[in-house]
Each structure stands twice: as C-alpha cells, then as structure tokens.
Specification:
The chain has a two-stranded antiparallel ribbon with strand order 1-4. Strands 2-3 form a two-stranded antiparallel sheet. By secondary structure, the protein is of the alpha+beta class. Helices cover about 35% and strands about 10% of the residues. The model is unreliable at about 5-15 (pLDDT under 50). It contains six helices and four strands, in the order ααβαββααβα. The radius of gyration is 14 Å and the shape is globular. The longest helix is centred in the N-terminal third of the chain and has 14 residues, at about 1-15. It has helices at about 1-15, 25-30, 60, 85-90, 110-115, 135-150; strands at about 40-45, 70-75, 75-80, 130-135. A hairpin with a 2-residue loop joins strand 2 and strand 3 (about 75-80). Helix 2 (about 25-30) crosses helix 6 (about 135-150).
C-alpha cells in the first residue's frame, strides 16, 4: 500500500506542471515552484543527494493528501507527519499525526519557522529529514491556505 501511495505521489508530481491548480499554495505543494515559475530554493536539511538535486516537493514526503506516512525516497526511508492544517492547528491532542510526542499548536508564523528554520512551535528541531526552504512570506501563506482546504477526516 505504501508503494502504491509513493508511485501515485510521484505520478502527480511528474504531471504537476500540466495540472490545473486551484491556487498558488497548491501549485507550490505539488511542484515546488512559485508564482513566477521559479523553483523554491532548498536551503538546508538532508544532504542534497537525498533531496534529488532539490527536485523534491512537499507532496514527495507528505503525500498527495498531506497526511504523511513512510516513504522510500532515493536510498532513504522517510516518515513524514500529517501536515493538514486541521492537524497542525490541533496541537499535541492530534493522535497518530506523526509529530512524535505531540506539538504545540501551529500558526502561520510557527509554520514558517518549521518550513524555513526546521523548528517546532516550541523551538525544538524538527526531524533531520525535514528540508528547509527559502520561501517568501506570500508563498508560505499560500501553502498554509492550501493546507487549510484539505479535509480534516
């Protein structure tokens, strides 16, 4: 089942440039490209080889539905948490979200710290598998808006 999910995610990513997106945040999530068509710059985290030359996207690890899971990426096995906004905003009460021992409630600002600096809302470091990205405030807000549209169940 995990293999099927990984194949589907890769197909969506591969076809992402031909897909109609509902907004900028959805496009960034699936393609890693901002409004101007430029690739979102990778700024740290896993070794660049693991990141396949920074061609990875949010969907590569978190899945097409942002529910996370365990995936084989290149030669590594990555377990990514559920990043639907309903889970991020629920904080440590969210069960089976993949966030470890729970986390404080995310806001757009703490989500920014997670994506750009690799830190949980409480300041603790995220898992080393989480890449860091150079995103504008506008692009980051767009991704958060997209995650808020995903169903809670």
């Amino acid at each position: 089942m995990a293999l099927l999910a990984a194949v589907l995610a890769l197909l969506v990513i591969a076809c992402g440039s031909r897909r109609e997106f509902q907004g900028s945040g959805e496009r960034i999530y699936f393609t890693g490209r901002s409004d101007d068509g430029q690739r979102i710059a990778y700024r740290g985290g896993p070794a660049p080889g693991v990141m396949m030359g920074s061609s990875m996207t949010c969907a590569s690890c978190h899945g097409i539905d942002a529910r996370g899971g365990t995936r084989r990426i290149h030669m590594s096995v990555v377990t990514a948490p559920d990043i639907r906004w309903s889970v991020l905003a629920a904080g440590e009460d969210a069960e089976d979200s993949g966030h470890g021992d729970g986390h404080e409630t995310y806001t757009v600002e703490t989500f920014r710290r997670a994506v750009i600096d690799g830190r949980h809302p409480d300041g603790a470091m995220l898992d080393a598998d989480m890449p860091r990205w150079s995103l504008s405030d506008h692009d980051l807000a767009d991704i958060a808006t997209f995650l808020k549209t995903l169903p809670a169940d």
